[in-house]
Amino acid sequence: MRGPELAETIANFVSTNRVDNVRSAVDLNATPTRKIVSKIEADIKNTDKLAEELQKLSDRMEEIDRLDSYIRQKLSEVEPGSEDEQKFFEEKMKLTQEKDALVRKQDYFNVIGTLNETTEKIAIVQQKLAHFAMNDDYKTEEEKQMIDSLMRELKELVDQKNNLTVELMAKEEEEEEHDERSRLTLERTQNFLRGQQEPLSASKRLMNWIRS
């Protein structure tokens, strides 16, 4: 295969198999809102802040764990059915929901990190293939095998990038749904904890609600 033929083969392959950005991936799956797409694109571009964001998430989760331990201790000390017990339970629910959201966010940023690494690997493979394409002579058998290997690697990386892009969109859509469910759950919990069943402590009312 001559250089120009190889270059054309590579160009055709990339143009028919890749997803250059989040917007082009939308055509492959259920269309998310423009707001979600724009947010993902912005997060992907802010690669310099990725490590910083992950560290912030980790620090906050550690802080939540400490607060949760403190609240558990306080709940064992307060009078059952008291306003203090109710307040501590409400705070505990908020912390639990916040930590769940942080875990999902951490997973989201980890996918972005993997996506960026995959994009870099694609660029490296394309550079190697471009080197072969610059040579207009027929390739040796060893070079042909290397080209075939690089083409297979490129296809795997492009497929991985496409899948990661779609996964990011799904995660962001799910996050919006989680936010709404968390809000409703917190409201329902607060209503039950503030119930008028005075003989029952807040903890027992909560357990009865969960079992119902």
TrEMBL record:
Source taxon at top rank: Eukaryota
Regions annotated as coiled coil: 37-67, 140-181
Domain BMERB: residue ranges: 52-180
Protein keywords: Coiled coil
Database matches in InterPro entries: bMERB_dom
Protein name as catalogued: BMERB domain-containing protein
Organism lineage: Eukaryota, Metazoa, Ecdysozoa, Nematoda, Chromadorea
